[in-house]
Amino acid sequence: MTSTTQNIRTTLVIGGTGKTGRRVADKLSAQGLPVRVGSRSGEPAFDWNEPDTWVPALEGVDRVYVTYYPDLAFPGAAEQVGAFAKVAVDNGARRLVLLSGRGEEAAQISEDNLKASGADWTIVRSSWFNQNFNESFFLEPVLAGEIALPTADAVEAFVDADDIADVVVAALTDDKHIGKTYELSGPRLLSYSDVAAELSKATGRQITYVSVTNEEYRAVLRENGLPEEFADLFTMILDGRNAHLVHGVEEALGRKPKDFADFAREAAATGVWDV
User: What sign results for the dihedral spanned by CA atoms 101, 103, 104, 107?
Assistant: First the structure.
C-alpha cells in the first residue's frame, strides 16, 4: 500500500538545516507535507546529546529522516542512533530513513541498531557530497585556489545532495522503499585532481589539488576547530573501498544521478566561488 499525502503526519528532519536535511525539508514542504526541523535551534529543540529533547521533538511525528553529526563512524553514534530509534517507534514514528556512510563498517552498526527498533526502515548510504565544495569545509580552499587533502590518487564517485534528498523524500513518502538499502554515487569516478580541473573549468580560475600527509591535515583541522578524526575518515574511506560506481539513485528514482561537472557549473553561476 502506497502512502498518500492525506495520511502523512509531520516528518521530523534531524539536521534539517544541513546539506541534505535542508533539501529534504524543502522538498517535503513543496509537496504540502508538514515538516519539523530537528536541531538545537529548532522549536522544540533537538540535540543528540540531550535525550530529554527527543520526545518533545517527536510529538505528532510519524516519520523521521535521521542524520547524525559529525558522522556515524564516530564513537557513541551507534548507541545514540539505536536509543533514539526505539524512542521514536515507542512514540508513534514508525517510518525511519537513515543517512548512512557508504563503506563505513562502523556506520553499519548504527544501521543494525535502527533496524532493531522495529521501525519501517530505509537505509540511504552515500559518501562525499558535491556540495562539500560550495557549502561546507572545502569552500574556503576552493576560494583560495588550493585543495590540500590526504587523499593521494584516490578516486570517489561524488554524489549530489539533491539526488540524496530526492531518494530520502521518496523513502519517506512511498511504502515501496521500506526495507531497502540504497547505495548512492554519482555517474563517474573522480580523483581530487579531476575535481580541481572541473572546478577550474567552472570558475575560470586555476584551482589545484595538493596531496598532504594525514598528520599535516590533522594540523589544519585543529587550526580550524574541526574534529581531527575527519583525517582518519579520509584515510579509511578513500582506501579504494568506494572506488566503484553504485546505482541507488537509478534504483530508487528511475533516473541517472547528477554529474559533478553539471553541479560545478550550476554552483559557479550562483557566484559562491567568486573572488
Answer: positive
Over the stretch 187-207, which tens digit does the pLDDT of each residue have?
999 999 999 999 999 999 999
- Closest to 123 in 3D by CA, of 132, 112, 136, 135: 112
The mean per-residue pLDDT over the stretch 128-143 comes to: 93
Taking the model in full, what pTM does it have? Answer: 0.92
Asked whether 127 and 103 are in contact (CB, 8 A), the reply is yes
What is the chain's length? 275
Task: Show the CA angle centred on residue 65, arms to residues 63 and 171, nearest 5°.
Answer: 75
Query: What H or E segment, with its residue span, contains residue 46?
Result: none
**CA–CA separation, 128 vs 125, rounded Å?**
11
- If phi > 0 it is left, if psi is from -120 to 50 it is alpha, else beta; for residue 32 that is left
Is 90 exceeded by the pLDDT of residue 233?
no
Residues 121/122/128/131 CA torsion (nearest 10 deg): -100
Dig out the grid coordinates for 193 from the structure.
Answer: 585532481
Q: What's the start-to-end Cα distance of the chain, in Å?
A: 52
